[in-house]
Amino acid sequence: MLSDFTAFLRKTNALALAIGVILGVALGAVVNSLVKDVIMPPVGWLLGGIDFASLTLALPEKNGQVVTINYGTFINSVISFIVVAFVVFWIARMFIREEAAAPTKACPYCREANAADATKCKYCASAI
Q1: Mean pLDDT value across residues 22-39
Q2: What is the pTM (predicted TM-score) of this model?
């Protein structure tokens, strides 16, 4: 059973997926701290000393309960998401390179692209 499990891990890249999830969670924690502790304090200071985490909208009291909408926390979360998305885009762009397109030549009859070394068109079967 253990050998079947290790074969499953190797065959399905589950281990790589697990490592990616763990790194994603760690990256999310770092970015959340970056937004909350580094980016938002100067932004709040520039906007007149606003603490975004404390921005709330209180709804009318009903049955002795006060309900607040914490839109400042939402603003922090949106900024965190944007920073995480940018960092993931940057990392992906750094590591994932598109391969150069293989050279092609057009068929003189149907004008479809074929491999440069092709002698017969794969679309119309004409000799190239």
Answers
A1: 86
A2: 0.56
